[in-house]
Amino acid sequence: MYEHFDDFKLDALNCGKDYYCDASLTPQNIESAFTIYQHARNGTTLLDADGNTIAFGVTIVGRLALRVSTRKDNGEEEYTWAPSDESFPSIDEIMKENLGILSEDSTGQMGSILNSKNWSLLANDAWLLGSIHANTEFHFASPLRWDNLWDDNMERITVTAREIIGITAHGYEIRRPNPKLESVAVCIDRNKAMAASLITYKDCVKRYINRDIVSTLFRTQS
């Protein structure tokens, strides 16, 4: 676990800009990611009917709702978020409202869905690692199918695939307790989970360097 910012920062920088190819390693984004990690490490919570904070112990992973563009009468484009449905299972606004969000600005309730204003690959990794260190259950809002694991346009793994790799490589097992409901990852090796770090996460992700190798992940988890 990361008790101190300097340890987190050092591991993030040691992962390098080739791995974090976005703006992850700017000072602001490293600080933001560490705050997200600290929040996630404390576990997820909900509010009961009386407004009291109660432990929930579930983290939601999956792709975000589809952003739909429509043309207004004046010719301007307008964007809305399409609700999750069978054609595009996803994390939508209703789910965020019901299960709560977690961000660098969270106070009190720590929701189940990451919603960072400074989102980066590092922030996403930090959130996942914090949740692993909290031994939370992971529930998948999107099906574990090929188009959710591999981006054909960019020819690389998706963020969802990164999450699955990080979860299964660090003491978790994906199960399908009910065929009609979402897949769930549960911790089966707490020692392995607690040993997870940005470095071990990076090493696992970098094994999935091409489509053929990622297809083995798909066959294992589908």
Overall description:
- By secondary structure, the protein is α+β, with helices and mostly antiparallel strands.
- It has one domain.
- Helices cover 36% and strands 18% of the residues.
- It is built from eight helices and twelve strands.
- The strands form five sheets. Strands 3-8-12-11 form a four-stranded mixed beta sheet, with helices on one face. The protein has a two-stranded antiparallel ribbon with strand order 1-2.
- It is globular and about 45 Å long.
- The chain starts with a helix and ends with a helix.
Layout of secondary structure:
Layout: H1 5-15, H2 27-41, E1 45-47, E2 53-55, E3 58-61, E4 67-71, E5 77-81, H3 93-99, E6 101-102, E7 113-114, H4 121-133, E8 137-140, E9 150-151, E10 156-157, H5 159-168, E11 172-175, E12 184-187, H6 190-194, H7 198-205, H8 211-221
State the end-to-end distance: 30 Å
Mean pLDDT over all positions: 87
Q: How many E-type strands?
A: 12
Helical percentage = 25-40%
The strand order across the widest sheet is 3-8-12-11
Which stretches are low in confidence, meaning pLDDT under 50 for 5 or more residues running? none
How large, in whole angstroms, is the Cα Rg? 18 Å
- Summarize the helix and strand pattern as letters: HHEEEEEHEEHEEEHEEHHH
Count of individual helical segments: 8
- Choose one word for the global shape: globular
Tell me the fraction of residues in β-strands, as a range: 15-25%
| Major beta sheet summary | 4 strands, mixed
The secondary structure category is alpha+beta
Number of domains: 1
